[in-house]
């Protein structure tokens, strides 16, 4: 019988099987980054003003002198001599009319022909509902990180990763086709849940079948993929200006990733932890053939002693290790700073 780290060395520390798994994880991570960042462009509130009551063909662009006159009579200006975006004047006399709030607007469509706020009227007093979408999304990310980890321990890394990959695509398509604000928020919650769950699952799946000294490759690939997704959001939004088409474009790739199901294995390390030794041996032999490794094709080489079991410790033990507690505090502060800066940039 062999220890599992020795099995990995004989199979190949980072062969074709591990490369496939890492590529799958990188693609999933890049797509989750895209899904998060496209909201920066989808939720843009373009320049706007109240629609002139009774004028059916009103537009944000000035149509002529007559149109300019109606705007001047109907729309008040602010301290910067710009037309108010949320107020209109009910009287014909610019000096005596009552100033009221409006619920219909015309928009500058020169940059974005249609955005999420303009389609659902999330302007002026309703603008806070835009930020609520982001709050719900991040709540889903937190929930997914918890649920995904527990599910991966019970069901399997590969199975859970692909389930959430599928839901990620379905939720993204649903968000793109949402007829109402409530439906969009619900679908974005599911997309956020899959973001938290899928990212954690592909990270663990990629690292558990790689030798300790090669794990940095898997981690770096996922980090680079996340950055690539953030960077790609800008040119993608530049090419696709309509928010529904943009949301649909970033939602479709996960369906293509499902093809990896037949070319990457379940984590043998997880199978060993569950006592499924024959399945683990079958996967190891298959990986050895693909990687041109040196594992025997017959006999048993894995059992309950192949995997070193680390004793479980209470999280409260951290308070008895000052150095570890200090490092944890620094990491927490760093993540808070990152999240606040990211949200400030997006808003």
TrEMBL record:
<feature type="transmembrane region" description="Helical">
    <location>
        <begin position="245"/>
        <end position="264"/>
    </location>
</feature>
<feature type="transmembrane region" description="Helical">
    <location>
        <begin position="21"/>
        <end position="42"/>
    </location>
</feature>
<dbReference type="GO" id="GO:0016020">
    <property type="term" value="C:membrane"/>
</dbReference>
<feature type="transmembrane region" description="Helical">
    <location>
        <begin position="128"/>
        <end position="152"/>
    </location>
</feature>
<dbReference type="InterPro" id="IPR020846">
    <property type="entry name" value="MFS_dom"/>
</dbReference>
<protein>
    <submittedName>
        <fullName>Solute carrier family 22 member 7</fullName>
    </submittedName>
</protein>
<dbReference type="GO" id="GO:0022857">
    <property type="term" value="F:transmembrane transporter activity"/>
</dbReference>
<feature type="transmembrane region" description="Helical">
    <location>
        <begin position="183"/>
        <end position="205"/>
    </location>
</feature>
<feature type="domain" description="Major facilitator superfamily (MFS) profile">
    <location>
        <begin position="21"/>
        <end position="347"/>
    </location>
</feature>
<keyword id="KW-1133">Transmembrane helix</keyword>
<keyword id="KW-0472">Membrane</keyword>
<dbReference type="InterPro" id="IPR036259">
    <property type="entry name" value="MFS_trans_sf"/>
</dbReference>
<dbReference type="InterPro" id="IPR005828">
    <property type="entry name" value="MFS_sugar_transport-like"/>
</dbReference>
<feature type="transmembrane region" description="Helical">
    <location>
        <begin position="159"/>
        <end position="177"/>
    </location>
</feature>
<keyword id="KW-0812">Transmembrane</keyword>
<feature type="transmembrane region" description="Helical">
    <location>
        <begin position="217"/>
        <end position="239"/>
    </location>
</feature>
<dbReference type="Pfam" id="PF00083">
    <property type="entry name" value="Sugar_tr"/>
</dbReference>
